[in-house]
Structures are given as C-alpha cells and as structure tokens.
Model the fold of this input.
Amino acid sequence: MIFKVYYQESITEVPVRENTKTLFIEGESVREVRSKIADRGYNVESVQEVKGAHLSYEQQNEDYKVLEKDNL
Done:
C-alpha cells in the first residue's frame, strides 16, 4: 500500500499549512509507516492511505516519488 505523509521538517515546528510537506511511503499499515520515519525528527501531522483515483491523480504530479526501504 502507498501512504501519503503530511509533515513539518522539525518536531518543534508548529503545523502551518504553508510549511507542510508531503512524502509517499510504501508500507503495510499507518503504524509501519510512522516507524519507518520515526528517526527523521519530523512532526507528522497525518498519514493517509492513497489508492484508486486518488493514487492515479497523485502519480500524475512530477514530484511524485515513493520512498521504499532502500531510500529511507
């Protein structure tokens, strides 16, 4: 499954929409995705599974890239 993670670069940073970044990660569950990025120090706002038409839409974006175990 592919998950979209909304986050701030620093754990101390207050979530502000204009500063929110996103990344896509492959995983089996939200818990697994959170554990994969736990060591990065991100302030994770939410993790959302992306599938169907939503995934197709995201894949059309030129910045779309899925992080896998090797590039984490």
